[in-house]
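Methods — Computational structure assignment.
A single polypeptide chain was analysed. Its primary sequence is given first, followed by the predicted tertiary structure written as structure tokens.
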Amino acid sequence: MKQFAVVVGAGSFRSNDGAAIRFPHRWTAEGVTVEADFTGAHLLHLAAAGCVLNDIYREAGVLGIRIDGVRVTAEGGFDTQTWTSSGITYQVELRSPASGDELAMLLDRVDDVAEIPRAIRAGATVRRG
């Protein structure tokens, strides 16, 4: 099974790689960076990673937690014969003055509310219109 990984970063975790793509971002003045190839598998993983990054900033704002940097890496495998996914695993790195307990609570909350991971977990019908 071939692995497809993506990395999104913001704040102190923005990528310095010249190949990284930069996007404006509602919650960060410097925007976000994306390191991903342009394949369907990468884009699926990018949707999950980008949603988690966005929701970290959104939920941290609600909870009054300052976030100085976020990096989300999402990856998973695809059988390149059938394009069956092995699932998506994501990891989060945070830089914040908040306590470890506060950050753990934030990440649990984000894992519960992040829209794209929730939609993928629930399954979605995709059809040509």
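Note: Residues 102 and 108 are 10 Å apart (CA to CA).
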